[in-house]
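Worked example 3. Consider a protein that binds flavin-adenine dinucleotide.
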Amino acid sequence: MKQRANRTDRPMVIAGAGQGGLQAAESLRLEGWEGEIILFGEERLAPYYRPPLSKEALLEPLDLSSIVLRGPEALAGKGIDFRPNTRVTGVDREKREVILASGARQPYEGLVIATGGVNRRLPVPNGTHPDIVSIRGVDDAHKFAVSLAEAETVVVVGAGFVGMEIAACCRLNDKEVTVVERESRVLARAVSPLISDTYARLHRERGVRLALDSSVAEVNVENEKVKGVKLSDGRVIAADLIVAGIGLVPADELGRDAGLPCDHGIIVDRCSRTIDPDIVAIGDCTATAHEPGMPLHRLESVQNALEQAKSGAAALMGREKPFLLAPWFWSDQYEIKLQMVGTSTDHDRVVTRGDIDGYKFSAFYFKGDTFLGAASLNRVADHMAARKILDRGMKLTPEQVADEKVNLGALVKAAEKAAAETA
Ligand code: FAD
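Given these inputs, the predicted complex is written out as C-alpha cells:
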C-alpha cells in the first residue's frame, strides 16, 4: 500500500459533498492528514442527510437546519475547504489533477470519488416529463411538497423503500395513492416474502392501492400536464401527480472516463481502493464484492457510505481498514420503523418473535445453523442484538430465537463478558 506523509504541497481532493464525501474529509483528519482538504460539491448546500427527504421531511415544511450535517463554518473549523456549486468533470490520473466544469485544474495528493448516483428516469413515452417527481435532493423534496399540495391522486412507480415511504407520506396527507410495481411483491429486492407481505398488508390497510405484477407502458399527458399512466396490460390509472421511485444509476463517469474499471459503479475492494493507489471511491457510485471473486453489488445506504469513507481515508494514508461490518438499513413508513441487518438471501428457515399482526416483530433468517440476518419492525432491541451478534461473529440458534424467554441482549452481554475474561 502506498505510504503517505501527513502533509504534502498538494491537497486531498474529494469529488462529491454528500454523506460519504463529508465523512471522508473528516476521516482523513482522524487518520492524521494535516495538509489541505478540498471538498467539491455540485449542489449549493453543505453536505446534508438524505433519508428524511422521503420520510418526515415530506410531512411538514422542510427545515434545512435539521438535515444539514455540517455547515460551512463547521467545515472551515476542521480545515475543510468546502467549494459548493462546483462540478468535477474529469480526472487526469497522470498529472494527478481534477478538472472542474469551469475548465480550471486542481492538483491532488489523493482523490476520493464520492459522487453518489442519479435517479433512474422512467424509460417509457413521456417518462421524462418535467412534472414527474423523483426524490434525491432537497430541491426534489421541495418540488414534491408543492406538487402534492395541489394533487388529489398520486401514482408512485416502484415499490422499493423510497417509493413505499413516499406512498405512506401521501396517505398521511390524505391523497389517493396507487403504487405500480413490476414485481409480484413490494420491497422485493431487499426483503423476504414475509416482510413484503407485511408491508403490503400495512399499506392496503392504510388505503394504498397496489398494482403488483404491473409495468408502466406510457405516461399520459394532456395539455402538457401529466394525467396518469397507462399500464402494459392496457389499464389506465388517472393521477395528477406521478412519482418515479425506480432506483438509482451510479454516478461513476469520473471513474469510467479516467480508465478505472467500472461495472454499474466504480469497482472497489473492501478498503474502497480502485486500481489507482491515489484514488479511492466510496458510497453509491461504487460496486464491490463481499469477498474476492464474489458477484459485485452496491449497498445504497448511509452506513455503506460512512464505512467506505472511513476505509477509503485510511487507504489513502497507507493503512488497511476494510469495511467488514454486517450491512444495516432502516425505513420509516407510518409509525413503523423497519430495521434490517445482514441478509435474508438464501435463507432456508425464518424464525419470528413478537406480534406479526400488530406490526411489532422480528424475523431472524438462518441457512442451516448459520444466522444470516434479521428484519425488525418496531423492535429496536432485537435489531441491536442481531447487529452485535453478526459483527462479533457470535453463534445464535433458531431455538434461542424461537424461545421468547431468551433475552438476546443478555446473550450478547454474557458472550462479551466471557470473551473479555478469556482475552
Ligand atoms: P450522496 O449522499 O448522494 O452524495 C453525492 C454528492 O455528490 C451529491 O451531493 C452530488 O450532487 C455530488 N456530485 C455528484 N457528481 C458530482 C461531481 N461530478 N462533482 C461534484 N459533486 C458531485 N439510506 C439509508 O441507509 N436509510 C434510509 O432510510 C435512506 N433513505 C433515503 C431516502 C432518499 C430520498 C434518498 C435519496 C436516499 C436514501 N438513503 C437511505 C440512501 C443514502 O442517503 C445514500 O446511500 C447516501 O447518501 C450515499 O452517500 P454518497 O456520499 O455516496 O452519495
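Take a moment to read the result before moving on. The CA atoms of residues 9 and 158 lie 48 Å apart. The pocket of flavin-adenine dinucleotide is lined by residues 15-21, 40-43, 50-51, 53-54, 87-88, 114-116, 135-136, 162, 251, 254, 283-284, 300-303, 305, 329-331 (CB under 6 Å).
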